[in-house]
Amino acid sequence: MAFIEMSPLPPLVLASGSPRRRALLEELGWSFAVVPTEVDETPEAGESPEAVARRLAEAKAAAGARAFPGALVLGADTLVALGDRFLGKPRHREEAEWMLSFLQGREHRVVTGVALEWGPRKSSAVEVTRVRFRSLDPGAVRAYVATGEGDDKAGAYAIQGRGALLVEGIDGCYFNVVGLPLGRVSVLLEGWGVSLERQWTPGGEGA
Predict the structure, then answer these.
(1) Is this model's pTM higher than 0.90 or not?
(2) What is the mean pLDDT of each run of 10 residues along the chain (207 residues)?
(3) Residue 93 and which of 67, 156, 173, 203 are 20 to 30 A apart at CA?
């Protein structure tokens, strides 16, 4: 439904404190506000990783919409899943070592829920990328954890940094692993009439 197609774009708000998501949108040249949101990330009984990611993204978008009425709000949540077990951000370095040891030599899924909200209009989706870790010895795991790079990241690693050295290959959207599947966000926006030609450029539409 092209509800924005013939009218100016509303201001864009990123409902996330993630510096990776912010950097990805900045690389598009977009102008937007940032509002970090706090939501209860406790999974519900029997909830799949995909369902958790979508629900939390929608909750973040809703919180951002309450703080910025009239804006188009983007919420996102990323987690790492192996089977039905999913990993969020490590609480401490010991947990980070456990996570990487658990993932080493195996394929896992990086699951990101993305959600848009503008007034009464809402839309959401889930992006899944498969990542294969190479086999790692305990010393390599400890050395990576000691860098602190994965302290605040789902699965305890950053593919855009030194964490790339842990990865054997990926199948799917690279930007999803970084933290925000830009292609999926673009598809959702296009469903609302925001084409690639219309952007939140400084001094332009939605700025």
Answers:
(1) no
(2) 63 93 93 87 81 95 94 95 86 95 95 95 97 94 95 92 95 96 95 80 59
(3) 173
